[in-house]
Amino acid sequence: MDQDMKDSIMGALEQVIDPELGVDIVNLGLVYDVEMSEEGFTVVTMTLTSMGCPMGPQIVDMVKHALYELPEVSEVDVKIVWQPVWGKDKMSRYAKMALGVR
């Protein structure tokens, strides 16, 4: 996957807003990796802000919906991982400012 395609995927994922925090999953630092095969099979490795996050299934659906907007994407697999553990240090400067985190 070239950098332009990776940028397109990350751009699509920036449209996915965490319903509880009101900031997108990319700026929150929840997306750890994206991969895409020649056939357009796309794997998103991500985490959630907490293990018991009630919005998990909804966020996964939103990720799939956002990526299916890209014509190059044929199938999406979202892998939720708990390592490395998510923390405020993974958030972008924008997300920290938006949430008032220091």
Number of domains: 1
Low-confidence stretches: none
Strand share of the residues? 15-25%
Class computed from helices, strands and strand pairing: alpha+beta
- Average pLDDT rating: 95
Q: State the CATH superfamily name.
A: Fe-S cluster assembly (FSCA)
Shape: globular
Strands, count: 3
Main sheet properties: 3 strands, mixed
Report how far the terminal alpha carbons are from each other.
35 Å
Question: What order do the SSEs take from the amino end to the carboxyl end, as H and E?
Answer: HEEHEH
Q: Which CATH architecture is right?
A: 2-Layer Sandwich
Spatially, the strands of the biggest sheet line up as: 1-2-3
Radius of gyration: 13 Å
CATH topology (level 3) name? GMP Synthetase, Chain A, domain 3
Determine the fraction of residues in helical runs and give it as a percent range. 25-40%
**CATH class assignment:** Alpha Beta
